[in-house]
């Protein structure tokens, strides 16, 4: 176990170095991270393509007030080089980061420009991403991290457990061409 820059104990593959830098656009410069609890989101062997971590992050105002807990998910690259090569992380990870950091915001902006009031928001919110701590590097390394909304804590229901009645109630007012 090591202690990361936020004071949290974690194993090497659960560590997210410089987490506060990744989240500054979400939490703001007037708040600071005071606690990070990290645990595996998936069991070993359940997801070979990445390491999925559950993050519970305590933040508070710079003056020590207004504490809140943020629930997020971190996606990191697999630790084994062989798995990194199988999943071609130098390509796939960069594309996933680009999807969340560029494509999703462009899709939302396009909808607003087209006058759509109820913007389709069917993707996990992205709170930050990087391929390396070295901002000049274009190589994905062990410090790559994609920080996303934790869909379980935000009330999202996995499709396989929703059931017919729930799904029907949520879709009965929609058609194939829109609502």
How is the topology of this model organized?
Blueprint: E1 2-3, E2 9-10, H1 19-27, E3 31-40, E4 51-61, E5 68-76, H2 81-86, H3 89-113, E6 126-130, E7 145-149, H4 159-162, H5 164-171
Antiparallel strand pairs: 1-2, 3-4, 4-5, 5-7, 6-7
InterPro entries: EcKL
Pfam family, one: EcKL
Features:
25% strand; 5-stranded antiparallel beta sheet; two-stranded antiparallel sheet; 5 helices; alpha+beta; EcKL
Could you say how many structural domains there are in total? 1
**The biggest beta sheet, please?**
5 strands, antiparallel
Number of strands: 7
- Can you write the helix and strand succession as a string? EEHEEEHHEEHH
Given as residue ranges, the uncertain stretches (5+ residues, pLDDT < 50) are: 1-11
CA-CA gap between termini: 52 Å
Please bin the fraction of helical residues.
Answer: 25-40%
Structural class: alpha+beta
Strand content: 15-25%
Spatial strand sequence of the major β-sheet = 3-4-5-7-6
Radius of gyration: 18 Å
Compute the number of helices: 5
Mean pLDDT: 83
* Subunit arrangement of the protein: single chain
Using the alpha-carbon principal axes, give the shape: globular
InterPro entries: EcKL (IPR004119)
Pfam families: EcKL
């Amino acid at each position: 176990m090591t202690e990361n820059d936020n004071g949290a104990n974690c194993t090497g593959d659960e560590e997210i170095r410089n987490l506060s830098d990744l989240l500054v656009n979400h939490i703001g410069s007037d708040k600071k991270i005071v606690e990070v609890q990290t645990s595996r989101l998936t069991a070993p062997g359940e997801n070979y393509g990445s390491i999925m971590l559950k993050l519970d992050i305590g933040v508070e105002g710079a003056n020590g007030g207004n504490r809140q807990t943020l629930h997020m998910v971190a996606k990191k690259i697999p630790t084994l080089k062989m798995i990194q090569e199988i999943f071609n992380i130098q390509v796939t990870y960069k594309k996933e980061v680009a999807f969340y950091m560029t494509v999703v915001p462009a899709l939302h902006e396009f909808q607003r420009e087209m006058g759509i009031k109820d913007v389709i928001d069917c993707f996990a919110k992205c709170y930050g991403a990087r391929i390396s701590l070295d901002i000049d590097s274009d190589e994905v390394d062990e410090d790559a991290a994609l920080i996303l909304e934790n869909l379980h804590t935000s009330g999202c229901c996995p499709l396989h457990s929703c059931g017919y009645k729930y799904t029907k109630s949520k879709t009965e007012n929609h058609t194939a061409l829109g609502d």
